[in-house]
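Entry 14. Ran structure prediction on the chain below.
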Amino acid sequence: MNKSTRKGQSPKPHIVNKNWAALQEQPLLMANPQAALPLLSMIGQAQLSIEDMLGRMSRQFVEQLLMMAAQSVAGPKHPGRSAGEVRWHGSQGGLINLGTSKLKVSRPRLRGPAGEVNLPGYAALAGDDALSRRIADVLTCNVSTRKYARVMYRCADEMGISRSAVSRHFIKESAQALAKLMDRDFSKTDLAAIYVDGIIVAGHHLIAAIGVDATGVKQMLGIVSGSSENAKVVKDLLGSLAQRGVDMNFARLWVIDGSKALRSGIEQLCGEAAHVQRCRIHKIRNVAERLPKAKAAQTRWVMAQAFKGDANTGIQKLKAHAKHLHAQHPDAAGSLLEGLEELFTINRLGVTGELARCLATTNVIESPNSVVRRVSGRVTNYRDVAMAMRWTAAGFLEAEKAFRRLRGHQHIAALISAMRPVPVQLKKAA
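Output, structure tokens:
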């Protein structure tokens, strides 16, 4: 006896064919299953490809939906019928968006006392928002507007998207994406660290900011046009963050390059709440480029060793090395001493390990910058800064999709505690 038919047990249902079972759930196709047979025959005779068949079936499916929508408004179509609030009025061609292209369909027309009556659902099918998003995704994946049509499947009865149409869709979607990026609200986000760095796109200077919350999650905060050496631009960026809920009086770590305007802007808006960490990679590069090859290698090693230890010890080591360089390379010595204290901010806060390596440089924002350069580098003619902003926003949002938690994020709580110590009176009350 089969185990499933033992006494007290009901036999388990046996599905002969899972594909057939799934087909039972398709009411429109099951209502007229013979409709697909001629198409299958044409495929067998190599007169039709599978993409063509899917295109024709898509059109039939959509036209059935539109007919059902018309019936829900005007009732069943009846020969010679002229009465009623809404009447059938023939048919006309239409276009709907299908994936990455447009599909020609025939749709019924309805008329009422006030004129043309819209079909329920047709506007949503014909709307181009989803198509614009899909086109923007394709373009940010390194496909140019000229080559767009070549990488898309073309089914029967489909219309391709022209280069100019692709461009229009991308302009619309990227402009909306930029607006949404600059409208993001951070009033309920506890940002433990903010990275700020500049990028040049087609000669246009832009500044971008990425935030890291208390759990290590990274997200784009915004971009503005202008150089990080421009005090007004810096204030525009920081002011935008303040308007969108970032409390500038809340202690957090700011990881920046050596921009004096940026440092000054942070100090003016945040005061003592700002813990500024200068990017060590930028500093090492700035010092080394002022030295001959052998001396540069030695200086890089000295700086790397100094960063590993106690803040005061490391500062003394670098001051001694600057004194050693001053006689023959005063420019390098001056660069090394400039902003020296802020190279050791994370050391004073007790940050070590993976978290220290992530917070000591602007690499977190430099990596998305590389995606921006790849995406924006395919454009040969930027008409204005607005176009550069759109492409830059598209690149950053594409990079954001691959963002992972900051390495060492398990220790961010200790960093926050070091920056925001609990007052003594509160400790006693507790």
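The chain has two domains: 50-69+89-181, 187-419. Will compare against last week's run tomorrow.
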